[in-house]
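Hi L.,

As promised, ABC-2 type transport system ATP-binding protein:
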Amino acid sequence: MTSATQPVIRIENLTKTYASGVTALHGVSLDILKGEIIALLGPNGAGKTTLISIICGVATASSGRVTVKGHDTVTDYRAARALIGLVPQEISLEPFEPVINTVRFSRGLFGRPRDDARLEEVLRALSLWDKRHARVMELSGGMKRRVLIAKALAHDPEILFLDEPTAGVDVELRKEMWELVRELKAQGTTIILTTHYIEEAEAMADRIGVINRGRLLVVEEKTTLMRRLGKKRMVIELQEPLAELPGALAPYRLELSEDGRRLTYHYDTTATRTGITRLLADLAGAGLRVRDIETAQSSLEEIFVDLLREEEARP
């Protein structure tokens, strides 16, 4: 493996079992490359936060190993942690401290020299400069979340973990944060994002990982994943409404709209034959006249839901 493709984070067979006997992670392995944005999707309790906590040294794995640029997160913790910025899901800040002091203290924790010009850059990028002397308790929830990001960026980490970064923030702030993430990527920062917002992953991520019940179900480039697992649907608008589907069309598993005017046909884009030509012929044979046809690709959300449904169906 060349240095260009050497993973900045290597996760090897990571397992976490709590004293209660609950296993939060089952042998998770994953390589994360420098400069990429990878989104981890999964429902509550899937293991996303546990995984991030172990990588960042907040929690200890039961077995397995994590290295950050070759530094073991257990035996060489300080060197590994200095490369990482973490924006936690929960807002935990000293309420009486001014914003500037909070961010400056975070930089000092990692042994970085005082650099007020750099802190000004970070605060301005997050629209916090005008609030730099305000006490944290005086800020809105959205502004507090910006402070968390500023703290994570204060020591100029090469890797940034964002654990549900836009949970509970308004749409405007969410878009601003997306733009900030893109700027950080352009500067070479590696970003690992967990989110419940499918559109967030679809808009920003280079690769998508789906985790459920502590197992990493799939990790693939976003476009590859959508092409491989995505299905297309064809919506056929009829000239006259149908009360029910003719028996001859049963093999196609068509969905009939409530008003009887639209038929929806799902097909696999990777299949040798989609069945569309035969379907259209059988529609004509059944005496159905078509007014219009349109097609649409499955969204990432639909793929995500299908993957979870398949996983839940397993014993």
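Residues 7-227 form a domain with the Rossmann fold fold (CATH 3.40.50.300).

Thanks again for sending the construct details.

K.
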